[in-house]
Design a protein that fits this description.
Blueprint (H helix, E strand, L loop, with lengths): L1 H11 L2 H27 L4 H22 L6 H4 L6 H28 L2 E3 L13 H4 L6 H32 L4 H15 L5 H6 L1 H20 L5 H20 L2 E3 L5 H4 L9 H17 L9
């Protein structure tokens, strides 16, 4: 009976309160385990503790979906369905995200805004071929393979959190439009927890993050609530950026201000990046379907 009253009370709260209470519960479960392990082993267990936190998160959202939101199949409702269709959509999103960022950077090279650092190449190609082939990747094992694994992990983790569970919670109380805006702002704010002086300098990155959040919500809605395409798109963008950033393949020429190409080399923090992300969001908006999630 106490559990029933607790569930009833939680359901009486609006989505922002439920989300905060959920996150506090998650930390309360994780911290007593993680703190002593960290004190004993130090930073060497940082990745393991992060994985532990996310495993607890997956378990908790499954319980939350079954007991609080009353979904018969919580993970399916949040967009994780092990189907070939979802897999194909993931591969499409991965290709779209990678190709979009490659084209974005190749255009800036062709405009003379970015320069190719040929000294980083193992097998140089003529720079004039760059606009046609996109980015020529250097360290295949260190950048491409590891980058792919990292980007897919980031895409999966962030999409099930922001476009999966949080978006679903918001849609329980608000209209699809309000839920889209709130989820996108939540995504940007959590990525923008920085000192005030850094926020003031890199404020344009916040705009890029909001637009990226909108694009990813629309991508999920385009696929009737499946997360495959959103995970793939997110991973593709991260993957391409990871490769170029770690190999230091490109550098600004200084012909235009950084706020156009991207502050500190981050394409999300520049006018061109915002335009590109807006084009992706508009593309998904034009073909998106009104139904955001499959039946529970």
């Amino acid at each position: 009976m106490k559990l029933d009253r607790l569930i009833s009370r939680l359901n009486s709260y609006q989505a922002p309160i439920r989300i905060i209470l959920f996150l506090l519960t998650l930390i309360a479960i994780w911290l007593p385990i993680a703190a002593p392990i960290y004190l004993i082993f130090g930073e060497s267990v940082g990745i393991a503790l992060t994985i532990l936190l996310y495993c607890e998160f997956l378990g908790l959202i499954w319980w939350w979906g079954r007991k609080i939101a009353k979904y018969a199949h919580p993970f399916r409702y949040y967009g994780l369905s092990l189907t070939s269709k979802n897999g194909r959509e993931f591969l499409f999103g991965l290709g779209l995200g990678s190709a979009a960022l490659c084209i974005f950077m190749a255009l800036q090279v062709s405009f003379g805004w970015l320069a190719l650092q040929t000294g980083n190449w193992q097998d140089p190609l003529p720079a004039k071929l760059l606009p046609a082939i996109g980015i020529y990747f250097v360290d295949w094992q260190g950048a491409i393979a590891i980058g792919l694994l990292t980007s897919v992990g980031v895409g999966f983790a962030e999409e099930i959190l922001f476009r999966g569970w949080i978006l679903s919670e918001l849609e329980r109380n608000y209209s699809p439009k309000t839920a889209l805006i709130a989820a996108s702002l939540f995504f940007a704010i959590l990525h923008f927890i920085k000192p005030l002086d850094v926020i003031l300098v890199t404020w344009s990155q916040f705009v890029g993050l909001v637009i990226l959040g909108v694009a990813l919500v629309l991508a999920r809605r385009r696929c009737e609530g499946r997360l495959g395409i959103a995970i793939g798109l997110h991973a593709g963008l991260v993957w391409c950026y990871y490769i170029v950033n770690t190999t230091r393949l490109l550098k600004p020429t200084g012909h235009v201000p950084e706020w156009i190409t991207g502050l500190n080399g981050n394409p999300l923090a520049g006018l061109m990046g915002i335009i590109f992300l807006s084009a992706i969001a508009i593309g998904f908006r034009g073909i998106s379907k009104p139904k955001s999630v499959p039946p529970a």
